[in-house]
Amino acid sequence: MYNAKTQPKGSSKVLVFGAGNFGSCLASHLGDSQHDVYIWAREERIVTHFNKYHRNAAYLKDHVFPESITAVGPALPSEEFMEDMDVLLFAIPTQFLREMLRTLRPKFNIENMPLMIFVNKGIEVGSNALTLEIITDTCGPEVAEAAAFISGPSFAKEIVDRQPTSVSVASFTEIEANKAATLFHQPHFRCYTNGDPIGIELSGALKNVYAIAAGMSDGLGFQNNTRAMIITRGLAELTCIGTAYGASPLTFLGLAGVGDLFLTCSSPNSRNYTVGFRLGQGESLDTILNTLGSVAEGVTTAKGAKTIIDGLGVSAPIATAIYDVLYNGKDTRLAIRELMELPPSKELELPPTAGKPTRHLLRKLGMEVDSPVPRWRTVQILPGLNDRQ
Questions:
Q1: pTM for this entry
Q2: Which residue among 318, 341, 364 closes a domain?
Q3: Which residue in the list 9, 107, 179, 207 is annotated as catalytic?
Q4: Where are the catalytic residues (predicted)?
Q5: For residue 337, pLDDT beyond 80
């Protein structure tokens, strides 16, 4: 029987899986907020260097981390170690998450579960699964129902510099969303809760595809008009895809939707924008990925997005064009020209039918709802959920 651990009112013990840019910056933020933080890295040199110098040898190299953070690894933490944690935060690429959770699942005490938070953004290649479905498959529906997801316009370097930032925190369970928001909330890091984790996930994944498009446009030499067009039409496509999937269209107007889309499409600090820019400059995808130095999730997400788009039968010409450039060898200038030569169409149009993938996922979770869009009040009537403290 699933039972969530009661979160302490003061400092929490947090284990962050993933010592990349985002995992490191969130660990730093929580360490600055007086929590006891452990960050797991898969490389021994990262662990050793971090504990000796309070610096990450691979990411955010100029940042000095709080002494309240301890690096662990490369072996995965023991069952006893994890049971002592109040929060497990996963900041590893989506493509590695299933293997990680499958390995960790036997170490979880389902009767005393820590708060599970996920910040990865992507769609799993092959299965086209969102993180929520990966959690369901590996850890069971009760763990997935209580999971929290954080997404929004949040570059790692600006977070560690304490620049004002806001994010969305989503869960099927309002109690769990509030727990995660309370953990992270600070005057320089505002959290807003949301009851649509599927929409939050789709926003975080798909915006990376449109960031590649924006970067590609800039790399080709196009300027502000074109970038604004890509961002705006990208938002329209993202909303259409998400609504057809079963998410709330309002979610895409929030921080995880238009907020993150604008950020990643308009800054060279975005890895996905950088991939697109270099494609527009004429570099090959293989060269870019081999020299990028970190993961650009939009490249793999484009595959899953194309499958989802085709399966839903919606129109998403920008996302489709990026897939063709990445995987069918289409010339970038030809892709832009073909997009511009499309016939006139309605500017804003939601799909006539919506929700089949979400209904399938909710059934997998054991959640039957009348509306395709999940809402807290629907989920909370399920047996046991109101007992989670």
A1: 0.91
A2: 341
A3: 207
A4: 207 (proton acceptor)
A5: yes
